[in-house]
Automatic annotation (TrEMBL), chain A:
Family: Belongs to the ABC transporter superfamily.
GO molecular function terms attached to this record: ABC-type amino acid transporter activity; ATP binding; ATP hydrolysis activity
Source species taxonomy: Bacteria, Bacillati, Bacillota, Bacilli, Bacillales
InterPro entries hit by this protein: AAA+_ATPase, ABC_ATPase_HisP-typ, ABC_transporter-like_ATP-bd, ABC_transporter-like_CS, MetN_ABC_transporter-like, P-loop_NTPase
ABC transporter domain location: 2-236
Record's protein name: Amino acid ABC transporter ATPase
Alphabetical UniProt keywords: ATP-binding, Nucleotide-binding, Transport
Pfam families: ABC_tran
UniProtKB/TrEMBL annotation, chain B:
GO CC terms: ATP-binding cassette (ABC) transporter complex
UniProt-recorded name of the protein: Glutamine ABC transporter permease
Ranges of residues in domain ABC transmembrane type-1: 18-206
Any single GO BP term: amino acid transport
Family statement: Belongs to the binding-protein-dependent transport system permease family.
Superkingdom of origin: Bacteria
Amino acid sequence: MIKFEKVHKHYGDFHVLNNINLEINKGEVVVIIGPSGSGKSTLLRCINRLETITEGHLEVNGVVVNDKKVNINEFRKNVGMVFQHFNLYPNKTVLENIMLAPVKVLNKSKDEAKKTAMYYLEKVGIPEKANSYPSQLSGGQQQRVAIARGLAMNPEIMLFDEPTSALDPEMIGEVLDVMKALAREGMTMVVVTHEMGFAREVADRIIFIDKGQILEDTDPTEFYNEPKDERARVFLSRILNH
Amino acid sequence: MLDFTILSENFDVFLEGFKNTLYVSFLALIGSFILGTILAIFRIAPIKPLNWIGTIYVEFIRNIPLLIILFFIFTGLPVFEIRLSGFVAGTLALMIYTAAFIAEAIRAGILSVPKGQMEAARSSGLTYTQAMVHVILPQAIKIVIPPLGNQFINLVKNSSVLTIVAAGELMYQGDLISSRTFVTFDVYIFVAVFYLIITLPLSLGVNRLEKRLALSN
């Protein structure tokens, strides 16, 4: 479903992604970890072309993402994204946040979009906040709204860019619970996170990336028990013993 | 003591000036807002030649005195067989001049909306224009209102420069009355009061709008 072939990306002299080869299948939950600055967020953001690649081949959902002729807006309908800082629209209510893209992009009627929005708000557990503004919600609630906003487009892939890194510790659980439920329903998910518990519980694969290169691509248990790569071992001991 | 007979005897002249100042300000305000918004979008659009046009316009126009722009339009254009009345030339000059400042205010407002807002909108499939219209501009306008209000107040006051081309606005009528009656002080006090009748409500209105928009956040 997602296929990186010999993908490179440069920021001037900086080689952010170095020969990435990666295939993610439908229904898989893949967690990407790595030190900060390793290129993990960039890798994720290439998938929906928030970042462009400089070299190689990247195919998502049968679409060659880096092809100039691709209708990028059409393509992005099928790929939801959740950000570290939620990026909810502060001037719109929770409901309006979720309804905007279905109405403007999918041309749904307001009523229909509202129904869908309420369905997903129920799903993330905060239907009572439908008419609140983002500033009236806690961080955990805002992130759940952001997930509902992504799901309302009924995407085939969901991308998560450090979804719990900006949250207070007591709110991380509620967001991870929503993500776990989503994983169990068979959503294809690519998650950049440091939440090891989550990775162990629901990830099918863990990708360890450093200095723009994929150093490990294994199943979670194996990764925790004995990472093959030295840098992965050091990284793992750091985040587990902090 | 202020001589109120000056006001009552010349009231229709003052009123004529007041009306013309309102006209000039209103037309220049609409024009400069539209032109300023276009220039602001030129400056931030991901198209290099547009960026250049926007930058050149803003940097040239805002660094030249309004009076010179006015002279150029009123006395320079006739060289090319384009003759405009003082009123039209004045309104145009005011619009061209103010648009540069408005462009800067709007550009700053758009740039102050966090980058993540555009990313969230685009990643959900909205086009650049849809994201601008539905997500970025509604947030930018709140930030832009105070500086925009300042520019509109400046515009009304700057319209007094138009007296030099006999645009028939307040300052010009004041000059007229004063040169006919040899009264200066009192006449210009009344002229100032008429300006305040326009600018004070504008100023208070902007303050109120600002407060209301702040509440909705």
